[in-house]
């Protein structure tokens, strides 16, 4: 097999250029080694096993990956790209494993590192988490408190006599929902968010390190009840409660700002309990970026499979005999518009990642808004893309062997995780309306009105955002004196649209910058078509409003749909190029529709999707420098 590092680093073909545009980077040694390890037998898809067995397999894979990769905390937390690479590549083979990794590393270990002040007493916990002798968990949400988790009831009462905390679940409402604490035989250490009470005073929500279970039993005072199955997303989610569990003082993750004085009283340089809560939840902000990357990966995997299948699957063509299903305009619109959205998601996430690398502070509302925007925009679009792709590949998309249905299930989980999308949109909208570190787009004059101009299309989106923000701000200003909730609730639909349009505008600007930076003529032509195709889809959502506001003419509005069809038809010739650009090796996915699907279902070769078939035909069906593959005798 050709050396993968040479193929990626030195090959300046249009496909490689587009692939790097999607990833935002060249593949380094960490990623190449990761892809190679994910080709090991333990990561092969397994049929006909129970949910509990699937869950156990993901934990087994987690430890195996840790050992084979030699994952170290210092490396993952000094290089965000390594953490994001884990989310990108692992998602393609096991979304449950991605969830375990993001909880273990980002939420649990990340919280200990960020709020533990480097205390020597915590080194033992970090060592056992690093070796995965113990798996990390994170407990914030409760049965009655999800997006309103700041109001949680779980309490940690300081006992000055014993110099420790007593963790307790005071009511059924306060049971932790739905941490991965249910698997027998898996030792768990959790970061638990609880309301600190000192001398009868509510000091706000803080994280605490709590041992949940050893590899043989639950720890004293910890109560766990398994929840039901989530189809094709087998995690050991459970209801977890605490009955006066004692916690050593050093397990309070107080950060540098809060402490308990020698006289047993509480002190903090952060005056607001709300600000202390935001500090405690800071790793959830990073989690939004991690999950955005995982959602994008799911969409890329599904789209690559759909493109591969649609170029080989034949159907009837009036007057032409048989044609590939991708030859149909309706199919082209569906698939290439999805591809255009995927590139927009990638450029938006790269923008967020670049800002995050430059330094993220919990008190930076613009950074937190960007992280939320990235997660909401990408996860919502990924779910739409995967759902549409599932339909386009027909019955093939219903089978787990072809991965797409599994990606769709996982994308639904991402939409809810780290803050429900709809709630995040509402919060973002409120910040935009009140102008919190936000400037509405300026009026742009002298723009030539033509759908062939990317600048004009971006102008239309800016105008929709500007007018929405101005109108909503005026309505809320005029509602002063009315009950606040009723005033806000009356404008909520338009407000969430504002947040969506704002995200679209940023994605388009990022897309345009990426286009300007592309020198290869073939890659640039493809990106320009994808940019306009993405923009036209978005503008079509609010073209009526643009017409009413005299921003868009009748003629241009009528031309939007034909132009979308024309652009998709132009991209038809680039289908092989776009397929290759996704860069996911077929040997990793092992999906029948990712290769010669007729041969994959040949009964003479054994059962459908047989591993022996895929193993022996991989070399013949795959470009030798496409990606690292399993090394076979």
Structural write-up:
- The protein is α+β, with helices and mostly antiparallel strands and 633 residues long.
- Among the domains are: 136-279, Butyryl-CoA Dehydrogenase, subunit A, domain 2 (Beta Barrel), CATH 2.40.110; 283-580, Butyryl-CoA Dehydrogenase, subunit A, domain 3.
- Helices cover 55% and strands 12% of the residues.
- The protein has 24 helices and 13 strands.
- The chain has helices at residues 4-10, 14-23, 29-37, 51-69, 73-78, 80-93, 95-115, 123-130, 273-280, 282-312, 329-357, 365-392, 404-416, 421-434, 454-478, 484-490, 492-516, 521-541, 543-548, 554-572, 575-582, 586-589, 597-600, 611-621, and strands at 135-139, 155-159, 164-168, 176-180, 188-198, 201-213, 222-226, 237-242, 245-248, 258-260, 266-268, 314-317, 321-324.
- The strands form 4 sheets. Strands 1, 2, 3, 5, 6 and 9 form a 6-stranded mixed sheet that branches.
- The longest helix is centred in the middle third of the chain and has 31 residues, at 282-312.
- The protein is globular and about 85 Å long.
């Amino acid at each position: 097999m050709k050396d993968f590092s040479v193929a990626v680093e030195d090959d300046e073909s249009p496909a490689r250029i587009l692939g790097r545009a999607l990833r935002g980077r060249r593949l380094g040694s960490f990623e190449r080694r990761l892809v190679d390890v994910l080709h090991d037998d333990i990561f092969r898809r397994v049929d006909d096993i129970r949910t509990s067995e699937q869950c156990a397999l993901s934990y087994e894979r987690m430890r195996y990956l840790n050992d084979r990769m030699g994952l170290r905390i210092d490396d993952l937390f000094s290089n965000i790209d390594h953490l994001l690479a884990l989310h990108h590549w692992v998602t393609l083979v096991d979304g449950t494993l991605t969830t375990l990794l993001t909880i273990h590393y980002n939420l649990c270990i990340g919280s200990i590192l960020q709020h533990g002040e480097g205390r020597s007493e915590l080194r033992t916990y970090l060592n056992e988490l690093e070796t995965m002798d113990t798996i990390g968990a994170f407990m914030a949400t409760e049965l009655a408190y999800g997006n309103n988790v700041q109001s949680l009831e779980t309490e940690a009462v300081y006992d000055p006599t014993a110099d420790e905390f007593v963790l307790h679940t005071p009511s059924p409402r306060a049971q932790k929902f739905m941490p991965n604490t249910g698997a027998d035989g898996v030792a768990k250490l959790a970061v638990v968010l609880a309301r600190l009470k000192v001398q009868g005073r509510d000091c706000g929500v803080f994280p605490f390190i709590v041992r949940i279970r050893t590899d043989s039993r639950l720890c004293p005072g910890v109560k766990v009840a398994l929840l039901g199955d989530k189809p094709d997303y087998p995690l050991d989610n459970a209801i977890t409660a605490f009955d006066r569990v004692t916690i050593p003082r050093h397990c309070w993750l107080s950060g540098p700002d809060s402490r308990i004085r020698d006289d047993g009283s509480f002190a903090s340089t952060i005056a607001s309990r709300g600000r202390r809560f935001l500090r405690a939840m800071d790793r959830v902000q990073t989690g939004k970026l991690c999950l955005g990357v995982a959602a994008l990966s799911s969409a890329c995997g599904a789209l690559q499979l759909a493109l591969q299948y649609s170029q080989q699957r034949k159907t009837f063509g009036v007057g032409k005999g048989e044609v590939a299903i991708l030859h149909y305009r309706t199919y082209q619109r569906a698939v290439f518009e999805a591809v255009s959205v995927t590139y927009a998601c990638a450029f938006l996430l790269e923008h967020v990642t670049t800002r995050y690398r430059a330094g993220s502070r919990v008190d930076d509302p613009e950074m937190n808004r960007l992280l939320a925007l990235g997660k909401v925009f990408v996860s919502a679009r990924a779910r739409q893309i995967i759902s549409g792709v599932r339909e386009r590949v027909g019955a093939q998309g219903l089978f787990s062997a072809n991965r797409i249905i599994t990606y769709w299930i996982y994308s639904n989980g991402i939409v809810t995780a780290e803050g429900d999308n709809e709630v995040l949109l509402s919060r973002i909208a409120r910040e935009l309306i009140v102008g919190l570190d936000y400037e509405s787009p300026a009026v742009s004059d002298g723009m030539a009105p033509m759908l062939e101009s990317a600048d004009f299309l971006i102008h239309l989106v800016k105008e929709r955002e500007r007018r929405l923000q101005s109108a909503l701000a005026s309505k809320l200003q005029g509602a002063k004196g009315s009950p606040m909730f009723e005033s806000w609730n009356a404008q909520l639909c338009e407000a969430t649209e504002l947040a969506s349009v704002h995200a679209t505008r940023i994605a388009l600007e990022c897309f345009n910058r990426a286009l300007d930076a592309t020198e290869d003529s073939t890659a640039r032509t493809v990106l320009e078509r994808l940019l306009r195709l993405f923009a036209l889809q978005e503008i079509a959502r609010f073209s009526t409003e643009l017409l009413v506001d005299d921003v868009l003419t009748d003629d241009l509005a009528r031309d939007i749909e034909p132009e979308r069809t024309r652009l998709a038809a132009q991209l038809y010739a680039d289908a092989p190029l776009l397929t290759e650009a996704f860069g996911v090796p077929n040997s990793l996915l092992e999906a029948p529709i990712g290769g010669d699907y007729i041969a994959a279902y040949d009964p003479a070769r054994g059962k459908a999707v047989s591993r022996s078939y895929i193993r022996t035909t991989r070399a013949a069906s795959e470009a030798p420098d496409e990606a690292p593959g399993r090394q076979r005798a």
